[in-house]
């Protein structure tokens, strides 16, 4: 489908460009021909008459006309050669430009297909679990404990659905209200932002057996942004870190001045090594590097972070330092 669309657009663009080129070349040739027939010959004869202080002879007139015809013929040949070259190159150039223009649309379409497939899977899974448990419960007589466990399990699946719905709504809200968020941006103390997020998550990290440290630089600059959205972004990075870190490892959150920008980062020691392909896809909706991670989340947290950074015209980068992984949110002060 992509190839057929590219070819169809190439044909349309080529026909349009070639028609414009043909009209332009014909008009240019007629203009030059008329210019030589009128102004050029007259100007040359005037100069000849002025220089010799004599009227231009018939022989001189024929010579000037012949020179004008030769010049027009040479111009026509050059113009024809240029048109032939353009006629040969335009289809190839149009095809290359068309493919390049369609590439983002194709990638967006593929991303949308993956999103729909993954979202459908995530929504169906808890429903299938609940349906199976209810069917088993109704097949024969059960005691109260069995029904209680079935209800508890179904409640957990409903909570899972509720979390998924909330995350999808949060992502949609950020994308739909990006203009509103941009108008609600103010100077923010980066150090205070990081400290507040650190305090908010500290108990959860300590109770989970992790070492948790705020290593923000003393002279880190301010940033301009939407405080609530940035707090959500850093919080999502921390939630992601606690899910995928080695037990009892060190998790750090901090901020530094880096290359003319302010970088807020979260650094941890992951329990699974990410390959290069996974790193590039981390910020896609529902992407999870390993199938066994699926029980830990939906793969929407980092997609929300990316959406927030897009609103702020900032960058999100992933880097590896020895066996540790660093997620950095970079913004101009």
From TrEMBL:
<protein>
    <recommendedName>
        <fullName>histidine kinase</fullName>
        <ecNumber>2.7.13.3</ecNumber>
    </recommendedName>
</protein>
<keyword id="KW-0472">Membrane</keyword>
<keyword id="KW-0902">Two-component regulatory system</keyword>
<dbReference type="InterPro" id="IPR003594">
    <property type="entry name" value="HATPase_dom"/>
</dbReference>
<dbReference type="InterPro" id="IPR005467">
    <property type="entry name" value="His_kinase_dom"/>
</dbReference>
<feature type="domain" description="Histidine kinase">
    <location>
        <begin position="118"/>
        <end position="333"/>
    </location>
</feature>
<keyword id="KW-1133">Transmembrane helix</keyword>
<dbReference type="InterPro" id="IPR036890">
    <property type="entry name" value="HATPase_C_sf"/>
</dbReference>
<dbReference type="InterPro" id="IPR036097">
    <property type="entry name" value="HisK_dim/P_sf"/>
</dbReference>
<dbReference type="Pfam" id="PF02518">
    <property type="entry name" value="HATPase_c"/>
</dbReference>
<dbReference type="InterPro" id="IPR004358">
    <property type="entry name" value="Sig_transdc_His_kin-like_C"/>
</dbReference>
<keyword id="KW-0418">Kinase</keyword>
<dbReference type="InterPro" id="IPR050351">
    <property type="entry name" value="BphY/WalK/GraS-like"/>
</dbReference>
<keyword id="KW-0597">Phosphoprotein</keyword>
<feature type="transmembrane region" description="Helical">
    <location>
        <begin position="12"/>
        <end position="32"/>
    </location>
</feature>
<dbReference type="InterPro" id="IPR003661">
    <property type="entry name" value="HisK_dim/P_dom"/>
</dbReference>
<keyword id="KW-0812">Transmembrane</keyword>
<keyword id="KW-0808">Transferase</keyword>
<dbReference type="GO" id="GO:0004721">
    <property type="term" value="F:phosphoprotein phosphatase activity"/>
</dbReference>
<dbReference type="GO" id="GO:0016036">
    <property type="term" value="P:cellular response to phosphate starvation"/>
</dbReference>
<dbReference type="GO" id="GO:0005886">
    <property type="term" value="C:plasma membrane"/>
</dbReference>
<dbReference type="GO" id="GO:0000155">
    <property type="term" value="F:phosphorelay sensor kinase activity"/>
</dbReference>
<dbReference type="Pfam" id="PF00512">
    <property type="entry name" value="HisKA"/>
</dbReference>
């Amino acid at each position: 489908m992509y190839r057929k669309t590219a070819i169809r657009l190439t044909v349309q663009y080529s026909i349009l460009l070639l028609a414009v080129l043909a009209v332009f070349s014909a008009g240019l040739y007629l203009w030059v021909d008329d210019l030589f027939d009128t102004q050029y010959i007259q100007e040359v004869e005037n100069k000849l008459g002025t220089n010799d202080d004599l009227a231009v002879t018939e022989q001189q007139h024929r010579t000037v006309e012949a020179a004008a015809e030769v010049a027009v013929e040479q111009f026509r040949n050059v113009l024809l050669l240029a048109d032939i070259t353009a006629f040969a190159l335009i289809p190839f150039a149009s095809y290359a430009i068309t493919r390049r223009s369609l590439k983002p649309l194709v990638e967006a379409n593929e991303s949308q297909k993956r999103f729909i497939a993954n979202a459908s899977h995530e929504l169906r899974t808890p429903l299938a679990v609940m349906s199976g448990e209810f069917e088993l419960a109704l097949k024969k007589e059960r005691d109260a404990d069995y029904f209680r466990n079935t209800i508890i399990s179904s409640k957990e699946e409903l909570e899972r659905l509720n979390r998924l719905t909330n995350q999808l709504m949060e992502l949609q809200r950020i994308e739909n209200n990006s203009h509103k968020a941009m108008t609600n941006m103010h100077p923010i103390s980066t150090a205070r932002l990081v400290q507040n997020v650190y305090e908010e998550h500290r108990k959860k990290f300590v109770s989970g057996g992790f070492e948790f440290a705020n290593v923000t630089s003393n002279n880190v600059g301010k940033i301009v942004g939407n405080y609530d959205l940035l707090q959500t972004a850093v919080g999502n990075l921390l939630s992601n870190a606690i899910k995928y870190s080695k037990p009892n490892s060190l998790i750090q959150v901090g901020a530094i001045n880096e290359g003319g920008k302010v970088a807020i980062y979260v650094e941890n020691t992951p329990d699974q090594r990410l390959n290069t392909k996974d790193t590039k896809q981390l910020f896609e909706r529902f992407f999870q590097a390993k199938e066994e991670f699926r029980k830990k989340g939906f793969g929407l947290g980092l997609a929300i972070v990316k959406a927030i950074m897009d609103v702020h015209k900032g960058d999100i980068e992933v880097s590896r330092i020895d066996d540790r992984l660093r997620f950095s949110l970079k913004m101009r002060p």
